[in-house]
Amino acid sequence: MSTLDTKAISAWVAGRLPGFDGPVSASKFSGGQSNPTYRLETAAGDYVLRRKPPGVLLKSAHAVDREFRVQAALAGTDVPVARVHLLCEDEAVIGSAFYIMDEVRGRNFDDPRLPALSTQERGAIMDEMNRVLAAIHEVDIAAVGLSDYGPDGDYYARQIGRWTKQYRATQTDDLPDMDALIGWLEGNRPGDDGQRCLVHGDYRLDNLLFAPEGTGCVAVLDWELSTIGHPYADLAAVVMQWAMPVGPVGRGLAGVDRKAEGLWSDQRFVDAYCARRGLAGIDRFGFYLAFCHFRMAAILQGVKKRALDGNASDPEKGLMLGQYVPAFARHGLEAARRDG
């Protein structure tokens, strides 16, 4: 694990951020497999630093500059984000690009069963998660300066191409299910329905911070995969996550009696989302689920490869997560078959 050169950070920040003076100490947040994240403790208060990982990286991966830009653009919208301050793209400072933002105090839940909460609070958390997702997709991208945040054209064609390329670049095993899933997605893309909006790209419960007391969302985290695209990919990603096994690895709701536990069904979440956005419903949801499984398999393959190469933020966890690539490919094919 790389260490953070706090002296170099202090020297670079000097004069750029009022109050950020004197000695700085840093502690790395646990978890996370992409951009290493640190708490910076200063005399003026605490901040958070996100950096690109060290080592040789795929060209389009770990885009901290994009994370910085989108969070700056969303300030003042209905989407809660941390206030960002500085972006350093000079890799000579600490060895990779980084940015600094406020630390937002809040509660983070990595188990969607929400065992520490009451049944009423669980439903409220899911409702807030739904509200924030709809808010992301309702952002006026022209008004906030994000019209060029992603290219025009077929979002799914672009995403399938991108993640297929990155999967091939990090592939370590022969997986016929992944090959079949890629082929099916390429041949079964839905027609363009005209929706073009901001998408988070990795929207799930553990990428949200909630108020220390209460169920309001205070920040959406980890915008690395955000772009301008199609909203149903984010929505299907939530449903996909809930189908995973319960526990610290799967972080899903498979086998849970959701009604008894005060948790929303997939359909209730989809219906509430559609109501918030004025949609009559969603056709061919199986395609979007298949796509999300494919993308997650490709992401985890990259995590596995970085772990094997010694560049992962948490190599041991990276290797463990990499074991799930075949399962995501298989579940993606199952969703594809249900889609017909």
Automatic annotation (TrEMBL):
Pfam family, one: APH
PANTHER family, per database record: AMINOGLYCOSIDE PHOSPHOTRANSFERASE DOMAIN-CONTAINING PROTEIN (PTHR47829:SF3), HYDROLASE, PUTATIVE (AFU_ORTHOLOGUE AFUA_1G12880)-RELATED (PTHR47829)
Residue ranges occupied by any Aminoglycoside phosphotransferase domain in the UniProt entry: 27-248
UniProt keywords, alphabetically: Transferase
SUPFAM superfamilies: Protein kinase-like (PK-like) (SSF56112)
Keyword Lipid biosynthesis in record: no
InterPro entries (alphabetical): ACAD10-like, ACAD10_11_N, Aminoglycoside_PTrfase, Kinase-like_dom_sf
One MF annotation (Gene Ontology) recorded for this entry: transferase activity
Designated name of the protein: Phosphotransferase family protein
Provenance organism: Roseovarius faecimaris
UniProt superkingdom: Bacteria
